[in-house]
Protein 1
Amino acid sequence: MWRFLAGVGCAVLLMGGGILIWQGVARSPAAIVPAAGAPTARGEAEALAMPPQATEASREQKRFNRYDHDRNGGVSSDEYLAARRKAFAKLDTDGDGRLSFDEWAIKARTKFAAADADHSGILTPAEFATTRVVRKAAKLQPCAPAAPEAD
């Protein structure tokens, strides 16, 4: 019975300490994030250390500029489809303006041939494992370390 009471007492103390720490961190000036572009108490060096974040409008403007090749302020049908034409031209190896199945599937056929080490026409589980798509890791934005406050 005394173990149970000791456990309950420790749990209450831990919860109380956690609440006090949480409230202390929440009220500290270091935890308050300043608005973008607002001057900070830590000085100009901190403002320069944080990279600017692109707004959604500027991202859309960059995307528009990639399509607007003649910079006339509008995207024509030819400009919009130019990237598709380049991709089609890469696949249309014989240049006849038609895309056959073999032209379309050349990358998959090449990948299969490279994975089929014994040239049997059948991929074993070990050979098939070499065809998996390797995905890039998500890019994480590094956090700038917090500078100690001057008293």
Protein 2
Amino acid sequence: MIKTQVQIPDDLFLSAKKTAALKEWSFAEITRRGLEYMVETHSHYPQKKWTLPSPLDLGTRSVDAEELKRIAQED
């Protein structure tokens, strides 16, 4: 992933932040989605949509229902 800087007019930035908050997205997510939309609708070369990377397999820990109940009731 590439990190970049852009200059955004104050009113556009505030509107984007408010929209992101309403959607419970980060500002970065709303920016990526906006760029994806522009490329899809204004380009002859649609880009693949960005998705979250796959989670790492950290293995499993088998916990039975009684153990979960005990853990949940701990302070």
